[in-house]
UniProtKB/TrEMBL annotation:
<dbReference type="GO" id="GO:0016887">
    <property type="term" value="F:ATP hydrolysis activity"/>
</dbReference>
<comment type="similarity">
    <text>Belongs to the ABC transporter superfamily.</text>
</comment>
<dbReference type="InterPro" id="IPR027417">
    <property type="entry name" value="P-loop_NTPase"/>
</dbReference>
<feature type="domain" description="ABC transporter">
    <location>
        <begin position="22"/>
        <end position="256"/>
    </location>
</feature>
<keyword id="KW-0813">Transport</keyword>
<dbReference type="GO" id="GO:0005524">
    <property type="term" value="F:ATP binding"/>
</dbReference>
<dbReference type="Pfam" id="PF00005">
    <property type="entry name" value="ABC_tran"/>
</dbReference>
<keyword id="KW-0547">Nucleotide-binding</keyword>
<protein>
    <submittedName>
        <fullName>Polar amino acid ABC transporter ATP-binding protein</fullName>
    </submittedName>
</protein>
<dbReference type="InterPro" id="IPR003439">
    <property type="entry name" value="ABC_transporter-like_ATP-bd"/>
</dbReference>
<dbReference type="InterPro" id="IPR017871">
    <property type="entry name" value="ABC_transporter-like_CS"/>
</dbReference>
<dbReference type="InterPro" id="IPR050086">
    <property type="entry name" value="MetN_ABC_transporter-like"/>
</dbReference>
<dbReference type="InterPro" id="IPR003593">
    <property type="entry name" value="AAA+_ATPase"/>
</dbReference>
<dbReference type="GO" id="GO:0015424">
    <property type="term" value="F:ABC-type amino acid transporter activity"/>
</dbReference>
<dbReference type="InterPro" id="IPR030679">
    <property type="entry name" value="ABC_ATPase_HisP-typ"/>
</dbReference>
<keyword id="KW-0067">ATP-binding</keyword>
Length: 260
């Protein structure tokens, strides 16, 4: 056992938690003169499920996009899976491999089949052989419940099916962290459940997940912790039960009264 492993094992015996997979310390970001993130600090443990909610425009998307460097922060520290997010381009590639993301708009390539959408990343970025990528791709389509759609094009699928393809595509890179930005907001009501079911199953595999959503049933059931954003700050952070039953901040109370 090397010294650091030994230290970790000793830490675990002493009841200390492992190093967080995500560390944010006083993260600030501006769009021009607009101060969009005003000192966000939080940590996420390996395997933890964090739901992020808050009013429109409060910085939720910007925040999770800083975690895979789709947005740069200008002050503070972000460390993701041991990688400090700096201007160093090599880090950006490593981060994008480690962190999968699913967007509100599914962002599939319309001219590629479902299977091609899912295998493109591994084939290019990981230089995986085509057959190998296809075996994994089919497994993932099976996992998200649409193996029979492999050779269709995104335009031939329902919104719920397209979003499940987008999840399979992100998983094909074998990420350690999955970010979801309002993954069900563009879906018709009857399709929301099928996407949340896939996310719930993913949660059971132990994946670290950060999910921006207003699906409070999902949050109650799956989240270990809820972060409430308002005007570029985390104004409240709690376990689901305490968050819903006893919100402390006036802004949280107002938000919950509007959406529940
Ligand atoms: P949320 O996801 O909580 O709705 P966003 O993170 O998308 O909020 O946006 C936070 C604020 O930053 C909003 O006021 C939005 O208009 C602004 N904003 C987002 N992206 C940009 C951008 N690329 N340039 C300028 N302003 C932006
Ligand atoms: Mg958003």
């Amino acid at each position: 056992m090397n010294p650091s492993t030994a230290a970790q094992a000793a830490g675990a015996r002493a009841g200390k938690t492992e190093e967080p997979i995500i560390l944010c310390q006083d993260v600030h970001k501006w769009f021009g003169s607009f101060h969009v993130l005003k000192g966000v600090s939080t940590t996420v443990a390996r395997g933890e499920k964090v739901v992020i909610c808050g009013p429109s425009g409060s910085g939720k998307s910007t925040f999770i996009r800083t975690l895979n460097r789709l947005e740069e922060h200008q002050r503070g520290r972000i460390v993701v899976d041991g990688i400090e997010l700096t201007g160093d381009l090599k880090n950006v590639e490593a981060i994008r491999r480690d962190v999968g993301m699913v967007f509100q708009e599914f962002n599939l390539f319309p001219h590629l089949t479902v299977l091609q959408n899912v295998t493109l990343g591994p084939a290019w970025v990981k230089r995986q052989r085509r057959e190998e990528a296809e075996v994994l791709g089919r497994e993932l389509l099976e996992r998200v419940g649409i193996p029979e759609q492999a050779h269709k094009y995104p335009g031939q699928l329902s919104g719920g099916q397209q979003q499940r393809v987008a999840i399979a595509r992100a998983l094909a890179m074998q990420p350690r962290i999955m970010l979801f930005d309002e993954p069900t907001s563009a879906l018709d009501p009857e399709m929301i459940k099928e996407v949340l079911d896939v996310m719930r199953e993913l949660a059971h595999t132990g994946m670290t997940m950060l999910v921006v959503t207003h699906e409070m049933g999902f949050a109650r059931e799956v989240a270990d912790r809820i972060l409430f954003f308002d005007q570029g700050e985390i104004v409240e952070e709690n376990e689901p039960e305490a968050f819903f039953e006893g919100p402390r901040h006036e802004r949280t109370k107002l938000f919950l009264s509007q959406i529940l």
